[in-house]
Amino acid sequence: MSHGMGPVHHHALDLAGYLDRVVEGWVGPLRGNAGLDIVAEAVTGLGDHGLVWALIAAWRGRRPGPERIEAFRALAVAGVASSTVNAALKAAIGRSRPEPAGLGVASGGIPVRAPKTSSFPSGHTLAAFCSAAVMSRHGRSRSNAALFALAVWVGLSRIHLGAHHPSDVLGGAVIGTALGYFGRRLI
């Protein structure tokens, strides 16, 4: 670390490190459980390149009319906003990935694309929470809860697979949610 960092920055890094160690202590022993590994691989695969969010938008837009327009606008806003912000933050922060726990940890499991970018924030998680927020609708608490539950599962899958530090996932969730609610205004 540079000597020019202020005490607030040092405190944030210490807090992130503490969070990472605590969560890794919980998750580490679960790796290697074939059932959990396969679920994590499948959920990560669904979050890859926004696949699950495109499927949800297609389902919502299956009939012509205003719902179709809203569904595809929401998908476009979430896709553009999350990928732009994620790329900018990854380039600016450049955090190293965790030591590989073995993406695709289950023997013979679902193949998982190896990450090529820096670690913070988790792009899968940022996109998932952004999409959940943009696609949520006033007065639809059950469907909104399902969207956010899916986003949580995407984030957890990234930690389970060892693709991200837990603080990367938390950061992606916070940034994605804020970005998504801001993006709702564009729909």
Break the fold down into its secondary structure elements and pairings.
Elements: H1 7-27, H2 34-47, H3 51-60, H4 66-93, H5 123-135, H6 141-160, H7 166-184
Helix pairs in contact: 2-6, 3-4, 4-5, 4-7, 5-6, 5-7, 6-7
Brief summary:
The protein has 187 residues and is mainly α. The chain contains 7 helices and no strands. 67% of the residues lie in helices and 0% in strands.
Name its key features:
mainly alpha, 187 residues, 7 helices, Vanadium-containing Chloroperoxidase, domain 1, 0% strand
Q: Rounded to an integer, what's the Rg over CA atoms?
A: 17 Å
Order of helices and strands: HHHHHHH
* Major pleated sheet: none
Count of helical stretches: 7
How widely separated are the two ends?
42 Å
- In terms of structural class, how would the helical and strand content be classed? mainly alpha
The geometry reads as: globular
Query: How many distinct folded domains?
Result: 1
CATH class: Mainly Alpha
Fraction in helix: 55-70%
Q: Average pLDDT across residues?
A: 86
Counted beta strands = 0
Q: Identify low-pLDDT runs.
A: none
Q: CATH architecture, please?
A: Up-down Bundle
Strand content: under 5%
The CATH topology label is Vanadium-containing Chloroperoxidase, domain 1
Architecture overview:
With 187 residues, this protein is mostly helical. It has a single domain, classed as Up-down Bundle (Vanadium-containing Chloroperoxidase, domain 1). 67% of the residues lie in helices and 0% in strands. The chain is built from seven helices and no strands. The longest helix has 28 residues, at 66-93. It is globular.
